[in-house]
Amino acid sequence: MLYARLNSSANTPGAYGAAPGAGNMxxxxxxxxxNVGGQTMTDGDSEALYQLMVELFSATNREQALAELSRRRDxxxxxxxxxxxxxxxMTILYQEIIAIYPLLNPPALTMPxxxxxxxxxxxxxxxxxxxxxxxxxxxxxxxQLLYPFLSTTSKAKQxxxxxxxxxxxxxxxxxxxxxxxxxxxxxxxxxPLCLKIMDIGSELCKVVATFIFQKIILxxxxxxxxxxxxxxxxxxxxxxxxxxxxxxxxxxGRLLKSVTKCLIRLADNQKAKEEMREGMxxxxxxxxxxxxxxxxxxxxxxxxxLLVKLA
Length: 311
Known about the structure:
Elements: H1 2-10, H2 19-22, E1 34-36, E2 39-41, H3 43-55, H4 62-71, H5 79-85, H6 89-98, H7 111-129, H8 134-139, H9 147-150, H10 157-174, H11 179-187, H12 191-200, H13 203-218, H14 220-227, H15 230-246, H16 253-266, H17 270-279, H18 290-295, H19 297-310
Antiparallel strand pairs: 1-2
């Protein structure tokens, strides 16, 4: 496996020094391939990924290596583990992320620089997805490195891509319904960033941010955090209403379903239910989204469930 290859090389003196020395590392042994997504992962494929990781240590080759590793990230199920355990590789990814902080405010980020960082974030998402490295990434407080990206407000595409890819990393962490993961994001004040993107982000960013928020409130700890403070609960309900009202001009079935699921969950709280009865967007009650209801049976069930809860 790729991970085994990198792990053994990392224990070899000088294995991850300067790129010229790294080029002297031997070839992987064995000829057996593995199956990834229905395709056979050959030793040649593994060797190519391995060499790309070595090239990360070259300032000249790093940008191309990041792009190519990101493009091939579905080729090997162990790539996230390999990235985490290979000596120096995670430090390189952190450096790539931190290096653009000065370009965030005032906005000075170019599209090529944004693409380069997004490639680093895509590799970070592999680490966040893998069961062997997910909690280690969290315990190292790595997600907080992404918060400055989520704080940006520029609507330029390069910033939107940065926010969307950062949300992808966080979405990969929360989708496994871990109380420890949710507690981390509650404790590190992620929620205000998430709500802001739900309110003013692009459609795709709204979809991912609302999914993350839904996961947070499905957890008992996250639910208590949101509903235990009247002002916080009111802010959340106002933002969810804003999201619905913004969809009148350009409806999104995915986003409508996510918002409705959030409202259904919040209706488990009596104070939230009372406020929703009085102030929930009328667009969820009238025929504004009738075409979505007509086309999507699952959404019809959700909106019916919500209205029954509020009855």
